[in-house]
Amino acid sequence: MQGELDVVVATTAFGMGVDKAEIRFVLHYDHPASLEAYAQEAGRAGRDGNEAYAILLSHSQTQSTERFIARQGIPDTRVLRAYQHALLATDDEGSSSVRLADGMVLCDPDALANLAHIEPTQARVLLFSFEEAGLVQRGPDCTLEATMLLNQPVSTVLATIVDDEERTRAASLFDSLGAAQDMQVSYRAAQVYEQTGIDPRTIDALLVRLAERDLLLYRAYHRGITLTLSEHLAQQGELEAIEQRFANRYARFEERLNTMLDYIKLRPGNHHCRSAALINYLTGRDDAPLCGKCDLCSPTSQHLPWDPGIRLYGEPLAVDLRLSILGAVRDHNGIFAPRTIEKMLLGIPQTNYQGKVFLLSASARASDHFGELDGTGAKPERVQRTIAALTEGGFLQLNERTLPSNGTKYTAIALTQRGRDALAGGVELPEYREIEVKL
């Protein structure tokens, strides 16, 4: 912002996060998914009123990537049903969730994601979708786990609390935790609620106030959510309505993307102009004047600071198969089977199991690692052998897991500490050698 850098490489957040007047060039390496986004990002150039340029590079692969990413955000029926079952299972015996006195359920969102066998990020999206559909109502968040240490004797701390009801609540809490001066204790909301009946939603505020007065140290490290479950949550028709909402969102995305592509495909002639087309689209008008400077309506390109006819071709990047596998397992640690990791990296959206073809889960297809090895020449057999070698070398380990939806057991792959050290560059990885077989 102080003008010390000539060139900055940024994500799409550049359009929202930069307010610098003298930017002379904005160059898009890939086109955005909508004209609105393009206007926001390209509009950072020339805000001081002086001459500036917006340059847009485009390739057909970009639109495929945009569509692919958008489709991965659409959960399939199996994922919706799995999350529905996870919500309904909050009352099951052995569940980590707690039913509070007013009927709300205190639960761990990550535990719900694990029960549904989906990523926590996707679980948050689904929770919002279920809430939007009226199937759950979200209440205040509160602490599930924390540590507490009294700086004063219990009696001294209690004597500072004016409100009788709050003092009684604090005394019951301290007693259940076995709290004493200068001794750290662990607070677990579900356990304390079962022992004392103290609503966990009231504990945060109480302990924070006491901590602000230096009467105790309070560190909350695990947050939970409270939910009211609708009586319609178990109905199949409600899931179909949620699916339709996701489909409608994708349709709106597709419409905006096609508008962006139409803008890119504009050619000189017929009074075409980049600036006018953008202004007309954003304002709903059709009479914006031609700028006379863009690649469509400029009388000549001789004053442009680049050659409009130039074509750039990038060099292929080398990919270390071992690091790709370790990175993918790290980001989906203990979730997927080895075969799923293989298919995900190769960009293959389905896998075979016991003679049947199954579509990879939405979270696998939406992974940043999906298709990471596509185009590198890596073959399935080599990926399989490399996974086996990393497992044998102690970089990966196999764990048995159970699908919550049907109780099926499967083998998941997880990263070991040795694998983490290898990703950090602290441990040598096993070399891959092709084995030549002579007959």
Features:
439 residues, alpha+beta, Arc Repressor Mutant, subunit A, six-stranded antiparallel β-sheet, two-stranded parallel ribbon, 17 helices, 12 strands, disordered C terminus
Description:
Among the domains are: 88 residues, no CATH class; 103 residues, Orthogonal Bundle (Arc Repressor Mutant, subunit A), CATH 1.10.10.10. Helix content is 41%, strand content 15%. It has 17 helices and twelve strands. The strands form four sheets. Strands 3, 4, 5, 6, 7 and 8 form a six-stranded antiparallel sheet that branches. The longest helix has 29 residues. The radius of gyration is 28 Å and the shape is globular. The chain starts with 13 loop residues before the first helix and ends in a 16-residue tail after the last helix. 23% of the residues are buried. The C terminus is likely disordered.
Concise account of the structure shown:
It is built from 17 helices and 12 strands. With 439 residues, it is an alpha+beta fold.
What characterizes the major β-sheet?
A: 6 strands, antiparallel
Radius of gyration: 28 Å
What is the tally of beta strands? 12
Stretches where pLDDT is under 50 for at least 5 consecutive residues are: 434-439
Helix content: 40-55%
Question: What is the overall pLDDT average?
Answer: 86
Using the coordinates shown, work out and report the CATH topology of one domain: Arc Repressor Mutant, subunit A
Classify the secondary structure makeup into a structural class. Answer: alpha+beta
What would CATH call the class of one domain?
Mainly Alpha
CATH superfamily of one domain: Winged helix-like DNA-binding domain superfamily/Winged helix DNA-binding domain
Q: In the CATH hierarchy, what is the architecture of one domain at level 2? A: Orthogonal Bundle
Shape: globular
Give the SSE order as H and E letters: HEHEHHEEHHEEHHEHHEHHHHEEHHEEH
Kindly report how far apart the N and C termini lie: 67 Å
Strand percent estimate: 15-25%
Number of helices: 17
